[in-house]
Fold this sequence. Notes:
With 178 residues, the protein is an alpha+beta fold. The chain has helices at 5-23, 26-36, 83-95, 157-164, and strands spanning 41-50, 58-63, 70-71, 74-76, 105-114, 119-128, 143-148. It has 2 domains: 5-36, no CATH class; 41-164, Nucleoside Triphosphate Pyrophosphohydrolase. The protein is built from 4 helices and 7 strands, in the order H-H-E-E-E-E-H-E-E-E-H. It starts with a helix and ends in a 14-residue tail after the last helix. 25% of the residues are buried.
Amino acid sequence: MTASERPAALRALRLAAFRTFYRLPQRWRRRLVRWGSAHYIVGAVTIVRDADAAAPGRILLLRQPPGPGWSIPGGLLNRGEPPVVGAARELAEETGIRLDPSRLRAGVPNAIVHSGGRWVDMVFEVSVPADQALSIDEAEVHEAAWHPLDALPRLTRPTARLLAHYGIGPLKDHPEDD
Length: 178
């Protein structure tokens, strides 16, 4: 086969494959697409800033098992759950801060794809008074505390990478570095 015949042969093969695919029952097509597609876990996280103008530049961080680093409130979405609802639910579960999901603002960027893993975090932001009482779920959270942006504790690697996209933390000048 010559080089000029090869593209025509590939086009014909591709056309035959698509015709065969579309003749399959819809449920089989769906299974094939799911089998051949990348699978990602989707979570929702919230960057919680201190609303107190006298102490600007603080965020709420959590120390959670199993690692020694600090992270931001968040977790996995339930099947079919809108990301903003999941973010508000996780915030309430982990910190006791109960907010209507409409109070959460989509982060810019709103989705962070973690290149080292197969998960996507939908990111939201909110400001709340730091004197609001926190009620942590001790099964999920060891400690919750407000930290100045210029003196953050040791962050988990995924948290440091995520916050860098928002100009926060030790990786803020290099958000894409591993």
